[in-house]
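FAQ

Q: What does a record look like?
A: Structure on top, sequence underneath. For example:
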């Protein structure tokens, strides 16, 4: 696969940088080298040979009395901009090898990268409170001239972290400070996403329902995210055990636990085992009010994205098994400054068999992000 990517890079680099009508038809040579490095992971690449290795250090930081930790990646040359990279829901959090590779590559590309250590992410919980953590990480970054020269800074987020990143950029004090948001495999409407992860059904705006097999990981992350909102301690523990079993093994038996659920726990279980969009809508209304409020707190669709001044760089795999690509289509419609890049060789956030056209689209997305740096 890496040889195929290298070949595609060589083909594209023979005529890169052409523009027509202000649109990116072919990406820059730098963007293609960055993409090749992302595909290489920890292995050797031409970009690694050309650039000094960044440093990575865990640092404390605070904003208005709120204290945090995060990993700071400093490029080996003068930084051109700052970037907060928000991890998705994964046990390793900021230490996930894929995220470390991404942050390292971006730092090689002259970004100061701050990855906040978000405990909710490590616990597989996506919470409305995440928006404040992301916003504070960005506030800290832009407060340091050495980290974000001339205030140049952006956000990058993957999967379920895209919602909190966009909502952070809508904060009144940050609305005009976030230059760009790179959003990979993100979402717009939480109910649409939950419909997909439970039933496998999705649709483009105004289109018919389609179906594919979703990755069951998404529905059990939803369960983990809402455990704190389950008031019955027995139901909370039963749902936690179910989610842990199914996240470890999607086929793990849970019937021994289902029969022990009380009324509150049953509403959550019934929701994640819905089989049709109509069942999802009906069972959603039966969820405890505090759970529905938590979902609403992460729902980008409930916000006016016309107020988003940041450029939204959307990348989504057409065969994404966790969040359907139609969610990025909805984001592109709702946001005033959006670029949509739909590719085939991307499985949610993992690079797969990329075609030359996929490489072109991803390179154009990277060019848009790279453009926020100082010369």
């Amino acid at each position: 696969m890496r040889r195929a990517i290298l070949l595609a890079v060589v083909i594209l680099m023979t005529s890169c940088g052409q523009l027509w009508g202000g649109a990116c038809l072919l990406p820059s040579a730098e963007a293609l080298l960055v993409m090749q490095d992302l595909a290489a992971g920890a292995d050797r690449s031409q970009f690694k040979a050309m650039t000094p290795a960044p440093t990575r250090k865990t640092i404390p930081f605070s904003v208005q009395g709120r204290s945090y930790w995060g990993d700071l990646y400093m490029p080996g040359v003068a930084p051109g901009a700052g970037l907060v990279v928000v991890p998705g829901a994964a046990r390793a959090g900021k230490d996930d090898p894929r995220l470390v590779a991404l942050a390292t590559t971006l730092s090689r590309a002259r970004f100061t990268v701050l990855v906040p250590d978000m405990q909710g992410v490590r616990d597989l919980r996506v919470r409305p409170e995440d928006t404040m953590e992301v916003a504070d990480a960005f506030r800290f970054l832009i407060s340091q001239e050495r980290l974000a020269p001339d205030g140049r800074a952006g956000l990058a987020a993957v999967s379920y972290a895209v919602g909190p990143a966009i909502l952070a950029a809508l904060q009144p004090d940050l609305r005009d400070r976030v230059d760009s948001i790179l959003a990979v495999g993100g979402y717009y409407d939480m109910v649409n996403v939950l419909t997909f992860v439970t039933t496998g059904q999705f649709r483009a705006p105004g289109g018919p329902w389609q179906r594919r097999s979703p990755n069951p990981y998404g529905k059990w992350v939803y369960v983990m995210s809402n455990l704190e909102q389950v008031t019955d301690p027995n139901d909370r523990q039963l749902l936690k055990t179910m989610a842990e079993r199914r996240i470890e093994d999607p086929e793990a038996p849970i019937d021994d636990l289902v029969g022990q659920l009380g009324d509150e726990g049953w509403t959550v279980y019934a929701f994640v085992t819905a089989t049709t969009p109509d069942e999802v809508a009906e069972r959603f209304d039966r969820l405890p009010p505090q759970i529905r409020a938590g979902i609403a707190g992460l729902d980008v669709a409930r916000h006016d994205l016309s107020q988003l001044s940041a450029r939204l760089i959307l990348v989504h795999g057409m065969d994404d098994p966790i969040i359907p690509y139609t969610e990025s289509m909805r984001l592109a419609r709702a946001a005033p400054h959006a670029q949509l890049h739909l590719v085939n060789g991307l499985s949610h956030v993992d690079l797969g068999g990329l075609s030359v056209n996929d490489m072109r689209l991803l390179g154009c997305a990277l060019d848009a992000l790279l453009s926020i740096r100082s010369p």
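Q: Is there anything notable about this one?
A: The first strand starts at residue 19 and ends at 20.
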